[in-house]
Amino acid sequence: MFRRSILATALVLTAPSIASAQDYVDDPTSSHYDPDWLGTYSIIGRDPGTGELGIAVASRVLAVGRNGSTFKGGVAVIVHQAASDPYYGQIGMEMLDAGLAPQEVMGRLVRSDLASERRQVAILDNEGRTAAFTGGGPLGLEEYSHPRGPNEPWKGHKCGVDYCAQANTMMGPEVVESLARSFESTTGSGKSLAERLVDAMDAGNAGGADVRGQQSAALFIVKKLAGAGGYSDVAEDLRVNDHPRPIMELRRLLTLRQSGQLIADANRIFERGQREEGLRLLLELRDRIPEYDRIWIALAGAYTRMGRRADALAAIARAVELNPYNARPMSGGLPMIDTFESLRSDPEWTRIMSVWPLARPAGV
């Protein structure tokens, strides 16, 4: 650990100056352009119960998730925005992994950067310790608002227990205040960290958000060895690269990611004899992701077991309409699911499944 700490310190002290990079100017008639400029708002959070760390971010730039976020399960999450510089993420994470505290890491990074006025950075480590910096303000304050003129966008940050919220190019401080208030209010709510972060982004968006509008959003959740097969720390990586309502789309993607477990939970409740409760949960999920064929199949299964034949067939028809591949008479297709055996002699079933030869892809 001592050797790694010396290495990280040396890297900071010898960091190259990038002060010559030009700021992004939101003017298509201008030649001033910085492809890494992230006018944005974000929140980093921690769930001490699960050990998860997370980042949620949104901006009026294309693919905000492509840079500006650095994370390592069991260590920390870092956001570096405004004039985003991966130096803060890579070298900062090395120092954190070597045992330095976030405040010390932030101090070293900022002091070594001749262009620090153009940065906005926040750190949250696995112990819940935080540090945040908004260029133009003092280092180390938990809360910071940048003084501005009447036509100047707002920038600032706020750190609290297990989170930091930060924003620039905003309508006003209401964005950060809304992010913070939402995250604090969901402590102990039973919601996952991912849901709490997306809730906070919704609140931030309602609080005014980016003066330039909306375009992209991203969500990252990390925990040591939480990735598929334990081969990575990334438990969640959802990105909306270009969308008129990116946070709404981010929530939809999160719901899709959670839908398998939600459907299984509803079926488990249904099988315990609480049929109306299980059906209610499935209907709620259908209302959140109505274009997802698998929720309609789950509903059809519930209706079939309840003897509601017409409702079951209507749900099956919708599932096939959304994805004709569901009508295939082979593994995974509706005709092969035992739950629907009682429906196979119904003329409506035959009519619904008749789309398969017509919709059958070439070579299948």
Question: Could you name the key traits of this structure?
Answer:
5-stranded antiparallel sheet; 20% strand; 7-stranded antiparallel sheet; 364 residues; 2 domains; single chain; disordered N terminus; elongated; 11 helices; Glutamine Phosphoribosylpyrophosphate, subunit 1, domain 1; alpha+beta; Serine Threonine Protein Phosphatase 5, Tetratricopeptide repeat
SSE order and pairing:
Blueprint: H1 2-13, E1 37-38, E2 40-47, E3 52-59, E4 69-72, E5 76-83, H2 86-97, H3 102-111, E6 119-125, E7 130-134, E8 143-145, E9 154-160, E10 163-170, H4 174-185, H5 193-206, E11 216-222, E12 234-240, H6 246-271, H7 275-288, H8 293-305, H9 309-322, H10 347-353, H11 355-359
Helix pairs in contact: 1-2, 2-3, 4-5, 5-6, 6-7, 7-8, 8-9, 9-10
Beta percentage is 15-25%
Helix content: 25-40%
Query: What name goes with the CATH superfamily of the largest domain?
Result: Aminohydrolase, N-terminal nucleophile (Ntn) domain
Number of helices: 11
Q: CATH top level of the largest domain? A: Alpha Beta
Radius of gyration: 25 Å
* Major sheet characteristics: 7 strands, antiparallel
CATH topology of the largest domain: Glutamine Phosphoribosylpyrophosphate, subunit 1, domain 1
As for the number of domains, it is: 2
Number of strands: 12
Biggest sheet strand order reads 8-9-10-2-3-11-12
Q: Which ranges are low-confidence, i.e. pLDDT below 50, for 5 or more consecutive residues? A: 1-25
Distance between the amino and carboxyl termini: 57 Å
Order of helices and strands: HEEEEEHHEEEEEHHEEHHHHHH
Global geometry: elongated
Structural class by SSE content: alpha+beta
- Tell me which CATH architecture of the largest domain applies here: 4-Layer Sandwich
Mean residue pLDDT: 87
